[in-house]
Amino acid sequence: MSTTPTTIIPIEDTSLTGFYKDMSVPEKRTFWACATGWTLDGMDFMIYPLVIGTIIQLWKVDAGTAGLAGTVTLLASALGGWGAGYLADRIGRVRTLQLTIIWFSFFSLLCAFAQNFDQLLICRALLGLGFGGEWAAGAVLMGETIRAQYRGRAVGSVQSGWAVGWGLAVLAQAALFSYLPPEQAWRWMFAIGALPALLVLYLRAYVKEPEVAAQTRAKVAAKGESPSILEIFQGPILKVTVLASLVSMGCQGGYYAITFWVPRFLTTERKLSIVSSTGYLAALIVGSFAGYLVGAWYADRFGRRNLFLVFSLGAIAVVAAYTQLPLSNEVLWVLGFPLGFFASGYFSGMGAFLTELYPTRLRGSGQGFCYNFGRGMGALFPFLVGYLSQTTTLANAICIFAVIAYLVFFAAAYALPETRGKVLHADA
């Protein structure tokens, strides 16, 4: 395998929106395709946490078992993400993205027809395979299509689509649960999750394979070789893989410990109804959206690594206050904004960071494995929070596991190098 010298370019224009006006048509098409994908991805995932209370009541399952469905979805998404990353190195980023979107849209629709919890568990697990694969393929596609000087802000801005999708899921919940009985409303929530399949039509028509990826696959094919999925565990790349996997585990474990159980925390320990809790979730979502945009700017202005260090400490402070202080509901509503801000904003740097850590021929495999190893390990947190909440308060359980996750995130990020401004090259 040949090596290519690392090229770092200075980032002169660091304004939040300055990148967009200078992007080419292919860059803009990829940007909007992936932004829409992230939006619908976020909507699909957040549907289950929003209906978990209804599932518990209708099918008489305990909190730990209900949390298991979230954990199984994320564990399956870890396998799907690693597999899709490897597939993206073999058949291309765009084609892999199309396959994963169709897959998770189909199984979201099947969730709407589940007749018991076991069937729902199986459908959520199969959905997870495509859910994880969509991020892996989309993140590499974005990272390789967007130029180095804009990569952090573009990929980070796309990540903000997750908050939009979360918001759409909350709005759908408020509307459906207002006009339909719970035993029907939750099914319509999952049916809406099939909408991402429509995005494939746009991908097929307008989004092309990144040139650096196409060139690398051509070079590899000319040599009669194919990248091995095990190369990310060999030589100096092994250290990168281990540390990047821990970064991914910490950031996602903290996020899932918070966002998966906060809706349940509001309706049980805070005694809010599903509809009245919508305003509290709205504050969290608006803070999340702002966090993604600020994080995108921060990643290009001060670096990906610095973003992780600052936001992980901020998340620890806010989640501790949100769950441990004797706050009124009014103050809790206000605190939802900084909680969403710090518990989400660091994701804006993840896609660009993982893209820049690996050579092109291994980028799909490396990025897909690290992020989805983190997702798989982070998948344990919804289950562990639910399990621990049977012996202590849900607030305590959320705080304990979120703080543990963010400490791992901080330590691993501190041990990795800064990658801001790195130019990607074709290699073989």
TrEMBL record:
Domain Major facilitator superfamily (MFS) profile: 30-420
Membrane topology value: Multi-pass membrane protein
Gene3D superfamilies assigned: MFS general substrate transporter like domains
GO cellular component: plasma membrane
InterPro entries membership: MFS (IPR011701), MFS_dom (IPR020846), MFS_trans_sf (IPR036259), Sugar_transporter_CS (IPR005829)
Keywords: Membrane, Transmembrane, Transmembrane helix
Domain of life assignment: Bacteria
Presence of the UniProt keyword Transmembrane in the record: yes
SUPFAM superfamilies registered for this protein in UniProt: MFS general substrate transporter
Signal peptide segment: none
One MF annotation (Gene Ontology) recorded for this entry: carboxylic acid transmembrane transporter activity
Listed PANTHER family: CARBOXYLIC ACID TRANSPORTER PROTEIN HOMOLOG (PTHR23508)
Protein name: Putative MFS family arabinose efflux permease
Originating organism: Bosea psychrotolerans
